[in-house]
Each structure stands twice: as C-alpha cells, then as structure tokens.
Specification:
single chain, alpha/beta, Rossmann fold, two-stranded antiparallel sheet, 10 helices, globular, disordered N terminus, disordered C terminus
Length: 224
C-alpha cells in the first residue's frame, strides 16, 4: 500500500460492521509506534516525556502521525496526553504551571489535551517564546509536569525556525519520512541538523511504505 490514510479518511472509512484488515493493521501500527516511543509509563515519575514530531520536507505526513499517535496514547485512561502544534507554543502567553492548568482542555476522556483559546495572546512584537529561552524551557517543563506524554507537531525543517527553539529542550525528536518523498541526503541532513541543534533523535518513522501496512509507520531508525 503506497499511501497512508489521512486521519479524517481513516475514521470515515470504518464500516459499520467493523474495521477492514487495512484499518486494523494501521491501528496495530500506531499502537506499536506508541509502545516503541513510550515503552513504559511510570506513574511515580515527576515529569512526563516531551516528543517533537517533524519531517525533512512538507507533505511527509508528520501531522497525521502525530494526531494518530496522540489519540492512541489517550485511549489509556491512566495516561495524560497533551498535543500541540509548535505554532501554538509560540502563541502561548504563560509558562506559569498554575496558570497553564487553567488554559488547557480535553474534548473527551479518550482525546488528548490541548491549549484552550484563552491560552493564546496576540503579540504585536515577538512573544516571550521567541524572545526568551528561559520561557521556552519553563513552558515545556510545566507541560511535562502536568502530562505524561507531550507531543509537539513541528513544522518541517527548512520551512521555519520552530525546531531551533525546540530540539534541545524536548526529550526527543522523531522524523517522519514518506516513501518516495525525501531523498536519502535530505534525511541525512535532517538528522545532522537535529543533532547540531542539541536534539536527541528518537528515530525515523517511515510512512507510506509500499509493503505490509504494519511496516508502514512502525519501523524506527536510529534507535539503540
């Protein structure tokens, strides 16, 4: 299978009598990816794990993978999952843990948490995220203190400076690479850029592989 389902297409395609083998394999793939990236959950841990999901170039499917992964993790009622775009972090006006707890919301018990509209401020000049490294560090730490899994959907490398401000303060970075999209040199350059920025490369999620659906989004590269 050469193409992956977009999130809306996936759930719209579910038949009334139950999922097809393709959807079942995709669900298994997402579950395997979740287990690989978050192999265990220690409820006694003070802080959770913040993972940045990005891609070498646009159109790789990083946002779709981030959405599916966050929803899969959120199905466990014992795990608090937070998902945000990197642009949401740039607009957030507070890194105060007590204030932050008031500006996040959860649509339902089986959905990840996210920023509520009143978390955002309109800045005529660059906001505190862009101007202050300490603000970025405090915001990510505050999220890790309140949530077990923090997933950040980051713009592709080369299209923005988002990863520059995230790589070194997140716990890890995962690349999403679509089969037949980015070249090997582009992937290698992305890997080098992440490491140069001080990020920890968790692995590479190969998307839309023309193989078994179970291999499409679970093969991790770069992990020990």
């Amino acid at each position: 299978m050469a193409t992956a389902f977009a999130e809306a297409e996936l759930f719209a395609a579910l038949p009334a009598v139950g999922p097809s083998p393709v959807e079942q394999d995709l669900a298994l793939s997402v579950a395997a990816l979740a287990s690989a990236l978050f192999p265990s959950h220690d409820h006694s841990s003070v802080e959770g794990k913040a993972l940045v999901i990005t891609a070498p170039t646009p159109g790789e499917g990083a946002s779709t993978i981030c959405n599916l992964l966050s929803r899969r993790l959120a199905q466990d009622p014992t795990i608090r999952v937070f998902k945000a775009k990197s642009s949401d972090l740039e607009r957030c006006c507070t890194a105060d843990p007590s204030r932050l707890a008031e500006v996040v919301s959860q649509p339902s018990l089986t959905e990840p948490w996210s920023f509520a509209p009143d978390a955002f401020c309109s800045f005529e000049a660059p906001g505190p995220w862009s101007r202050q490294k300490a603000f970025r560090e405090h915001l990510i730490r505050a999220l890790r203190q309140q949530f077990d899994c923090v997933l950040i959907d980051c713009e592709p490398l080369g299209t923005s400076h988002a990863l520059v401000n995230l790589a070194s303060i997140a716990d890890g970075v995962m690349l999403v690479v679509s089969a037949g999209h980015s070249s090997q040199s582009q992937v290698a350059q992305a890997k080098q850029a992440i490491e140069t920025l001080g990020g920890k490369l968790e692995g590479c999620c190969f998307n839309r592989l023309a193989k078994s659906p179970l291999q499409r989004i679970t093969k991790l590269w770069g992990r020990n």
